[in-house]
Specification:
By secondary structure, the chain is mainly alpha-helical. 51% of the residues lie in helices and 9% in strands. It has three helices and two strands; from the N terminus they run E-H-E-H-H. The chain has helices at 19-26, 34-50, 56-65; strands at 7-9, 30-32. It has a two-stranded parallel sheet.
């Protein structure tokens, strides 16, 4: 059912590279992994609660550097 016109998101944090995302990329779909989703949700929650806009790209780099 996957085809290049679709985008596929998977909310799994670990492992980030799931079979679904790997297969979707192989057929040309755009993808979003669970790590990006977690980081950007956390950044937005922090902004809403504190009024301070965090550096989401820095947070994403830190998340990516953490290896389970």
């Amino acid at each position: 059912m996957l085809r290049p016109a679709l985008w596929v998101a998977d909310v799994v944090y670990f492992p980030l590279e799931t079979e679904l995302l790997r297969t979707a990329r192989a057929v040309g779909c755009r993808t979003l992994d669970g790590g990006r989703m977690a980081v950007f949700q956390a950044a937005e929650a922090f902004r809403l609660f504190s009024g301070v806009t965090p550096d989401a790209e820095r947070m994403l780099a830190h998340f990516a550097a953490m290896k389970p």
